Structure formats: structure tokens, C-alpha cells
């Protein structure tokens, strides 16, 4: 049986090698172009916006619309505590706090308690001569000489917004500037406490001021246990939850049973408009199960709306924020 010997000239081998190389190069280039085109298509396709971000944008528009109806200045900050998502409208403006200042005052007192400079069961003496202008019900706490513990003074100051109790606490911590010092040490630069309730009542000038952004972050850090120890946090939150002032503000439009821990502030009537110069409320709202918590600070200043309408505006802001983060389960 014969055997066939196939021989190629060197020139033929070289030509065949070149042809193979050209085919391989063409294949590589074609593959690369296809991959580049696919990548370009992916890059040009817009990424879907997370649902939470949609909520924030929609919420911001809604809150802005409500705030624009204030006929005055509104400082607003809303923080979903668990996610950190924030909506702020004029949140960096320093506005009058009025009794909202009693929240950082209480934190300062409790820091002194933690550091053993004060005791919650420590008794403080008061007399009718100490009474600071406020409500008749609060003045009745001091209608005769009496001793209250620091714990009781804190409760009166936060839950009832009693000015006399607050001034007793201001004295115990070393004056209003000590509150500001404490706030600075915690990193809050836009909260300025420089006058007691009694001194302000005499002059009605140079009120304590703060920004909604700083107040909301103060609430966030309080809730997260970054400012006080658990026992002190629970004590303060309990006082805030039992607040009897401003029931038509943050709480006003929320579903029945919603837990709110807040501190209000209310200004005197304007000499011209006869309505409150300031209507404030700051607090922590507990959302439906599994939804977390909102820290919200609303400062309304110089509004021409009647007092009840100012409170209603705060209630609408709180409800809009509540619905934005729990709309599918809110009742």
C-alpha cells in the first residue's frame, strides 16, 4: 500500500501562517467590539432609584408645600433614625427655641448625674418667691415652700414645661452657658443657650436659639445612646412621652396610639398680630412595627397664622413624614 508524502514549500507555509493569524486577529477584534458595545449599553441605561430615595424626594416636596403656608419662617429637619435619611428645609437657620431649650438643659443635668455631680434624689428647696412666670397650674407647684427632688424638677420641666423648675436646674448646672458648653462638647455648634426662663421673662429679648438640624441630630444621638447611658435615656424619654403641652402639634394628626416623645416651645403673642411669635415642637416618633423611628424638629417663627393654625401646620408636617416612611401600613 502506497504512502503519500505531502510537502509544502516554505513560502506556502508562511502564507498559511499569516492567514491563520489574520483570522485570529479578526476574531479577537470582533469579540472586543461586541463586549464594548454591550458595556456601553449597560452604562447608558439609568440605574433604578432606590425606593427610600424616592420617598425622600416626595417627602421633601410635600414638606416644602406645607411649610410655605406658614406665613413666616419654618426650620424643619426630619431624620429616619435607623437609615439616617434626612430631609431638611431651612434646617440650618438659628431660630428662637423658647422652652425647647429645656431638652438640652435636661441632658446637661443628666450628664452631671452620670458624673456624680448631682443625684436624682437630691432635694431642692423652693418658695413662692421663686416662681417664674408661666401657667397657673405650674405656679401652683410652688404655692408654698416645698422640697422637690432633681428627678421631680426634671419631670416638671420636660412634661409640664415648668419655668420655675427649669430655672432651679439651670442654677444647679452652673448657669445657661454651661448648657452651651455641654452641647459644644457633644459636637453641636448651632444650639446657643445663654439665658434662663426667668431672665428672659423679664426682658423678652435675646432668646435662646438653635437650628432644626442640630435639634434633630440631638434627638438621633439621644435615641442611639450616644449622649446618655440607658437609664438616663429611658428616664428622659419617659418624661417626654408624658408631656402635656402641645398635644395638637407633632401628635395632632398621628394615628391614635402612636408613641411620641417631645418637647415644645411657645412664644408670647406678637404685639401687632396678636398671635404666638413662636410655635415649636421637637421629638421622636415611633413608626409602625419594623419601620423604625423619626427624629423631627419643627421651629415656626414670625408666623401670621392663628395659634391653632400654627399647631395644625406642625401636625401636618409630622403626619406627612410619618406616612412617607410607613404609608403601606399606616392607618
Explain what the structure shows.
This protein is of the alpha+beta class. The protein has one domain: Beta-lactamase (3-Layer(aba) Sandwich). Strands 2-1-10-9-8 form a five-stranded antiparallel β-sheet, sandwiched between helices. The chain has a three-stranded antiparallel β-sheet with strand order 3-7-6. Strands 4-5 form a two-stranded antiparallel ribbon. Helix 2 packs antiparallel against helix 11 and helix 3 packs across helix 6.
Task: Summarize this entry quickly.
This protein has 11 helices and 10 strands. It has 331 residues and is α+β, with helices and mostly antiparallel strands.
Report the strand count: 10
pLDDT average, as an integer? 88
Poorly predicted segments: 1-8, 32-52
CATH architecture: 3-Layer(aba) Sandwich
Portion in beta strands: 15-25%
- Number of helical stretches of at least 4 residues: 11
- The strand order across the widest sheet is 2-1-10-9-8
List keywords for this structure.
alpha+beta; disordered N terminus; Beta-lactamase; 15% strand; five-stranded antiparallel beta sheet; globular; 331 residues; three-stranded antiparallel beta sheet
Topology diagram in text:
Elements: H1 10-44, H2 51-67, E1 73-80, E2 86-89, E3 95-96, H3 102-114, E4 123-126, H4 136-139, E5 146-149, H5 150-159, H6 163-173, H7 176-185, E6 191-192, H8 197-203, E7 209-210, H9 212-223, H10 230-241, E8 260-266, E9 278-286, E10 293-301, H11 307-326
Antiparallel strand pairs: 1-2, 1-10, 3-7, 4-5, 6-7, 8-9, 9-10
Helix pairs in contact: 2-11, 3-6, 5-6, 5-10
Amino acid at each position: 500500500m502506497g504512502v503519500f508524502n505531502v510537502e509544502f514549500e516554505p513560502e506556502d507555509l508562511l502564507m498559511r501562517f499569516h492567514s491563520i493569524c489574520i483570522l485570529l486577529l479578526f476574531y479577537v477584534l470582533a469579540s472586543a467590539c461586541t463586549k464594548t458595545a454591550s458595556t456601553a449599553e449597560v452604562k447608558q441605561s439609568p440605574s433604578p432609584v432606590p425606593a427610600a430615595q424616592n420617598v425622600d424626594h416626595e417627602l421633601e416636596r410635600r414638606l416644602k408645600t406645607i411649610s410655605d403656608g406658614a406665613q413666616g419662617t419654618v426650620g424643619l429637619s426630619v431624620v429616619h433614625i435607623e437609615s439616617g435619611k434626612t430631609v431638611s428645609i431651612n434646617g440650618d437657620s438659628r431660630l428662637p427655641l423658647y422652652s425647647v431649650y429645656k431638652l438640652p438643659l435636661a441632658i446637661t443635668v443628666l450628664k452631671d448625674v452620670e458624673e456624680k455631680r448631682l443625684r436624682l434624689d437630691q432635694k431642692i428647696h423652693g418658695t413662692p418667691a421663686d416662681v417664674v412666670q408661666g401657667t397657673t397650674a405650674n405656679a401652683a407647684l410652688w404655692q408654698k415652700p416645698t422640697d422637690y427632688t432633681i428627678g421631680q424638677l426634671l419631670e416638671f420641666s420636660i412634661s409640664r414645661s415648668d419655668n420655675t423648675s427649669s430655672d432651679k436646674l439651670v442654677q444647679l448646672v452652673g448657669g445657661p452657658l454651661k448648657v452651651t458648653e455641654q452641647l459644644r462638647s457633644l459636637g453641636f455648634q448651632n444650639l446657643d443657650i445663654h439665658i434662663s426662663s426667668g431672665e428672659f421673662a423679664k426682658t423678652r429679648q435675646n432668646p435662646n436659639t438653635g437650628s432644626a438640624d442640630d435639634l434633630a441630630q440631638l434627638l438621633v444621638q439621644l435615641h442611639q445612646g450616644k449622649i446618655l447611658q440607658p437609664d438616663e435615656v429611658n428616664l428622659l424619654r419617659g418624661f417626654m412621652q408624658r408631656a402635656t403641652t402641645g398635644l395638637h402639634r407633632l401628635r395632632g394628626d398621628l394615628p391614635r396610639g402612636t408613641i411620641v416623645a417631645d418637647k415644645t416651645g411657645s412664644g408670647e403673642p406678637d404685639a401687632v398680630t396678636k398671635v404666638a411669635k413662636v410655635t415649636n415642637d421637637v421629638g421622636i416618633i415611633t413608626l409602625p412595627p419594623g419601620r423604625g423611628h423619626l427624629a423631627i424638629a419643627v421651629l415656626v417663627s414670625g408666623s401670621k397664622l392663628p395659634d391653632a393654625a400654627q399647631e395644625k401646620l406642625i401636625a401636618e408636617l409630622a403626619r406627612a413624614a410619618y406616612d412617607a416612611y410607613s404609608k403601606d401600613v399606616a392607618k
